[in-house]
Specification:
Distance between the termini: 73 Å
Number of strands: 0
Number of helices: 10
Order of helices and strands: HHHHHHHHHH
Length: 172
């Protein structure tokens, strides 16, 4: 209603949405073109050339610490270029978590799961043996339903357990 009033009846809501969505696409295309222009070597000033040379040998943070005045000038005068070029040279984070031996935890949890399963299959009064129930029977509670498949040995152990446990108990 507002669009119709503002456009003196020339635009309806569908036309306005089509026009707005086409404008958004042209903005995206424009930003991709400007990114290519930002990197073009013939349009770089001395500071930008020095910064690119620093980035060839160091990640952005180390380069910033080596030459903070250069970084400050680029930040004030060529912010978009600086952020884009830094994103191309980001250092890859390598996280090594040595606090837990995941293979050992997986095998121990699988052994415990087999033990719990064997005990419960012998108990005729035990409830239905679902994944969740078996997980809660483990001693440490180290396994959640979300991460169940992340433990390969535990996952394999569960896959080989007989399925119709409830029907076996009913027949006894």
């Amino acid at each position: 209603m507002v669009i119709t009033a503002l456009s003196n009846g020339k635009l309806n809501i569908c036309d306005a949405i089509d026009k707005a969505s086409s404008m958004e696409i042209s903005i995206k295309e424009h930003t991709q073109e400007t990114r290519l222009e930002l990197i073009a070597a013939n349009k770089l000033n001395q500071d930008q050339i020095k910064w690119k040379q620093l980035l060839e040998h160091n990640p952005p943070k180390a380069s910033r610490k080596k030459n903070p005045a250069l970084y400050a000038r680029l930040y004030r005068n060529h912010y978009n270029w600086l952020m884009y070029i830094n994103s191309l040279f980001l250092a890859k984070k390598i996280v090594v978590n040595k606090r837990v031996d995941w293979q050992q935890r997986d095998s121990k949890t699988a052994q415990e799961l087999r033990r719990v399963f064997e005990e419960l299959t012998e108990n005729l009064n035990a409830p239905h043996l679902s994944k969740t129930f078996l997980i809660h029977q483990l001693e440490k509670g180290q396994l959640s339903k979300k991460t169940f498949s992340a433990y390969p040995a535990v996952h394999d152990c569960y896959q080989f357990m007989p399925r119709p446990l409830q029907s076996i108990r009913l027949e006894d």
